[in-house]
Amino acid sequence: MTMIGKAFEFGYANARVKAMKQALLGEKEINAMTEANSADGVYSLLEKTQYREDLVVSALKERTIADQIEFATTKNFSRTLQKIVKIVPKKFENEIKELFEKYDVNNLKTILVSKHLGKVKEKIEPLIIDSMSISKGRMNKILDATSVKEVVNLLGGTIYGKVLQKHLKEYEKDNEISSLIFALDEYYYSKLPSIAKNPYGDERIILKMLKSQADIRNISNICRGKKDNITADKLHEMMIKSGNIRGDVLEKACSAKNVEEAAKIFEKNYSLGKAIEEYKKTGSLIPIEMELERNVAKKGLKVLRNSVLSLGTIAGFLFLKEEEVNNIRKIVRCKEFNLPQEQIKEMTVIV
Fold first, then answer.
1. Which stretches does DSSP call E strand in the chain?
2. Cα 269 from chain centroid?
3. How far apart are CA 240 and CA 186, in angstroms?
4. pLDDT tens readout for residues 257-287
5. Residue 14, SS3 per DSSP
6. 115 to each of 120, 125, 137, 181, 314, how far by Cα in Å?
């Protein structure tokens, strides 16, 4: 398509997305929240941002400040998704909704883990983004479910129910929720080529970003598996096959003796040197996982900067928005548990 044609198709949508980007929180705002004395301080800072509208209408006034902030970030992100659906050219609604399926999958992963841990609806609901494919009525029933099995049964008739049903017996046998979480990840990331496919040449940009997300899930799963003494064969079964990292490299990492040896395989490409040293001192995987997130976040920023008049611009913006919400949630929960500023800064991803 000619540049004039692309401008006609995407000009308005991209202009709106670029304007929305201006409202994203920068390093100054994130650092100010990190340095706040309490969750109340974070709330006061957010009142001066685009999150004010969502804080004001919060339906959780009787809950803790941290809960209110978490709920507000969820509502804000949901409104952002709805806004993008409205401004994207009608002919591309299906592509956008396929891209947004990631958030439906994340919803279900959050619900499954929460039900596995015995959490009640009130603790889960603030984290659930408005679904594109699951009706509010069905979602309410799912949130009311009292077990993982009930959640899977309530998803009957959907693709998610079909995917999860295959692994339900395995879960009931070993009580490991990771098998169900992996099933959802494998389903979503196996669709990458079709999700990214569009006639404007953006497929390579979006595909690269999504594959990078699959990569950090694989590396994180390997490191966690090594720490928990999971066998190499079991770890290899849990690998998402549609990322950028070659299968033989993943296999080598799965067969590593320990976390340090596995992480070193990815050290050069993901700048993990400092994070590995920190792991050796503390035994915490947080520095490694945060560095992986930063690497992918930078790729998202590059997409946003380099892609014009396209779906790539929208995909890049959503990635950055997602990181912003994750940062706010991490910070406010850390404040709730009185963690030191330096530790909080290690957990935030500045892009």
1. none
2. 21
3. 6
4. 999 999 999 998 888 999 999 999 999 898 8
5. helix
6. 8, 12, 18, 13, 33
Where along the chain do its domains lie?
A: 10-347
What the block records as the tokens of 125 is 């609901």
Distances (CA, A) of 143 to 116, 175, 249: 12, 20, 39
CA distance 12 to 258: 51
CB 200 within 8 A of CB 6: yes
DSSP 38: S
309: left (phi over 0), alpha (psi -120 to 50) or beta: left
Q: How far is residue 299's CA from residue 210's CA, in Å, rounded to a whole number?
A: 10
CA-CA distance, 205 to 247, in Å (whole number)? 22
Distance CA 216, CA 289 (A): 8
Whose CA is closest to 332, among 316, 320, 347, 314?
Answer: 347
Buried b (16+ CB within 10 A) or exposed e, 98-120: ebbbbbbbbbbbbbbbbbbeeee
* Entry pTM: 0.79
